[in-house]
Amino acid sequence: MSTTALITGITGQDGAYLAEHLLGLGYTVHGIKRRASLFNTDRVDHLYSDPHKPGVRFFMHYGDMTDATNLIRIVQETRPDEIYNLAAQSHVQVSFETAEYTANSDALGTLRLLEALRILGLEQTTRFYQASTSEMFGLAQQVPQSETTPFYPRSPYGAAKLYAYWICVNYREAYGLHASNGILFNHESPIRGETFVTRKITRAVARIALGLQDDLYLGNLDSLRDWGHARDYVRAMHLMLQQDEPSDYVIATGEQHSVREFCERACAEVGVALAWRGAGADETGVVQAIDAHLLARARNGYGPAPALQSASGHGGGHGGGQDSAEPLRPGKVLVRVDRRYFRPTEVASLIGDASKARERLGWEPTCTFAELVHEMVWDDLAQAQRDELCKTQGFRVPEFRE
Ligand code: NAP
Ligand code: GDD
What we know:
Layout: E1 4-8, H1 13-24, E2 28-33, E3 58-62, H2 68-78, E4 82-85, H3 92-97, H4 99-119, E5 127-133, H5 156-175, E6 179-184, E7 187-188, H6 197-209, E8 216-218, E9 224-225, E10 228-229, H7 230-241, E11 248-251, E12 257-258, H8 259-269, E13 272-277, E14 284-290, H9 292-300, E15 333-337, H10 355-361, H11 369-392
Parallel strand pairs: 1-2, 1-4, 2-3, 4-5, 5-6, 6-11, 7-10, 8-15
Antiparallel strand pairs: 9-12, 13-14, 14-15
Helix pairs in contact: 1-7, 2-4, 4-5, 6-8, 6-11, 8-11
Bound molecules: NADP nicotinamide-adenine-dinucleotide phosphate and guanosine-5'-diphosphate-alpha-D-mannose (GDD).
């Protein structure tokens, strides 16, 4: 019989990658999705098959981390061997505006799920993964951060996740639950939420290259993050639950880059060299030079991304639908700062030490920073090209900017 996993937050970035990974390992996967007024299963639709057909191993259930009876019922019905608790209000800045809700879903939601295991008498049989975060290190007390670094959260999100971390440790110690915390540093992908900084940048760069957008407003350009690929990080989640003993693990690349550097790298993918002028809230990112071949290639690049090192090929150039944005030219301002994106308390610098995961889980990241940016930009270019095509055919293209 196949192993059964229950994933909360299956419609999110990590939920989608994890579901795909576990299905690939032969698991039966149940996921919890929220009721929404629009379809919200985009990221997992490719995994879905008609439940009436034989051999189906992927199922979704309506639920919410704020609804204890619903969680108990889903756990009772699915009787999972492994639970991956990924559901969360996961946006740090939004948590300052929705602090109570963030605590309810991220902190108490975790407690509800752990209690469901106790109530149903599954604490000795079901293994539990908690999506903990490097945001718990916040105002980092050590560099790099490891499992022994003291926590200092800097947001309602960080504080809620800290409760979830400790309640998980407590249930492990009090009731013998096989419960592990993955303390994951930032991980991204082409299906990253559009309001996280990496995706916001790659999406904007693609749209700017295609002439669908003029510029990009960001907050703190100095922020330093340890960015990895979500595909690598979900492997670590699974490995943690295969260990004889539960434990807590930092998952990170050990490499740090600034938001500014992320912008430069993303622009370079479309042949634009960015230079920085001014300082603080007046700083701007300006086009310094344009590689016409690279830009043409980016504009014409339907289909899969070219190999990372071969991005200097020649393209024909089809004009890129420049009717809605000012054409790209040296001196054009692409990046501006908007104080709206500054946080009341910022986490300025994070970098992880994943030695324990390397030694005990045999886990290693496989995707480099350059490969990550490359994959994200080229995926967003394909989406921008679709939008551009719609636009040239007279269809309305929605403008999502946040
Ligand atoms: P994400 O893309 O924002 O996905 C969050 C998921 O949680 C979505 O499926 C969302 O549903 C669901 N959700 C939110 N509130 C819920 C509620 N009240 N009840 C049920 N489901 C709810 O986040 P992610 O990047 O995949 O991250 C997965 C987890 O890892 C999160 O717990 C996050 O805090 C944590 N984490 C992420 C990172 C990172 O860099 N990505 C790093 C460390 C830790 P909808 O689709 O309906 O919104
Ligand atoms: N979102 C966003 N938007 N962030 C910006 C912007 C902007 O316009 N401009 C600068 N930043 C800075 C933020 O201030 C932060 O320092 C950094 O870019 C990264 O922001 P996010 O991408 O929103 O991610 P995060 O680090 O706050 O949180 C993510 O990683 C955590 C792990 O460390 C989320 O995925 C959390 O759920 C996760 O726990």
